[in-house]
């Protein structure tokens, strides 16, 4: 084999090595996109699991406080509308008991722990939304790199041959985009 034969063989080997490198890079980028999507689904699952639990916890506190306040209000209304000493005594005892519950509640939650739970809910939701946003950014960046790689020459020739297709970005739809402008409201 002469010098030209070795040069041709060298070019063929380098071309084959380059094609293997290019193929492996595309596979790596496709795997990065898949992993990024998996990260998003994990974050979304966390949100799906966390939000209802936190809301129910806060609702539990709010419902406990609502029951106490309703009991105090009902006892007060009964005491105001009571006629006669026996009815008034009974109504005032009910009001005293309801007020004890209210005082116990205020002692147990001196700085309104229900508000702290609400703040915790907001904090958890905010943290989770930040994680989801970071996962979306990572995913979209991975998709951008992957889509660019499969569209660039000469990788486009290999990508088409081996079935590498473009991936969709994780974008907000019109309703979500409009919702981003308005701060979320949490209702109990």
Describe what this molecule looks like in 3D.
The protein has helices spanning 3-81, 85-108, 113-151, 155-161, 174-181. Helices cover 84% and strands 0% of the residues. With 188 residues, it is an all-alpha fold. The termini are far apart.
Name the quaternary structure: single chain
Q: Which class best fits the helix and strand makeup?
A: mainly alpha
Strand-residue fraction? under 5%
The geometry reads as rod-shaped
Keywords:
5 helices; mainly alpha; 188 residues; disordered C terminus; rod-shaped
SSE layout:
Blueprint: H1 3-81, H2 85-108, H3 113-151, H4 155-161, H5 174-181
Helix pairs in contact: 1-2, 1-3
Concise account of the structure shown:
The protein has 188 residues and is mainly alpha-helical. It has helices spanning 3-81, 85-108, 113-151, 155-161, 174-181.
């Amino acid at each position: 084999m002469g010098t030209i034969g070795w040069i041709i063989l060298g070019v063929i080997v380098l071309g084959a090595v380059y094609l293997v490198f290019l193929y492996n890079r595309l596979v790596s980028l496709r795997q990065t996109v898949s992993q990024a999507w998996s990260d998003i689904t994990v974050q979304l699952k966390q949100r799906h699991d966390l939000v209802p639990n936190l809301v129910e916890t806060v609702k539990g506190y709010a419902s406990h406080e609502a029951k106490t306040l309703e009991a105090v209000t009902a006892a007060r209304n009964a005491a105001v509308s009571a006629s006669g000493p026996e009815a008034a005594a009974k109504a005032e005892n009910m009001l005293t008991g309801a007020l004890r519950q209210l005082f116990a509640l205020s002692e147990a939650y001196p700085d309104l722990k229900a508000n702290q739970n609400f703040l915790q809910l907001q904090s958890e939701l905010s943290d989770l939304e930040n994680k989801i946003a970071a996962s979306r950014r990572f995913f979209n960046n991975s998709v951008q790199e992957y889509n660019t790689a499969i569209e660039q020459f000469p990788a486009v020739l290999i990508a088409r041959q081996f079935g590498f297709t473009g991936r969709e970005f994780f974008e907000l739809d019109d309703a979500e985009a409009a919702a981003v402008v308005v701060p979320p409201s949490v209702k109990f």
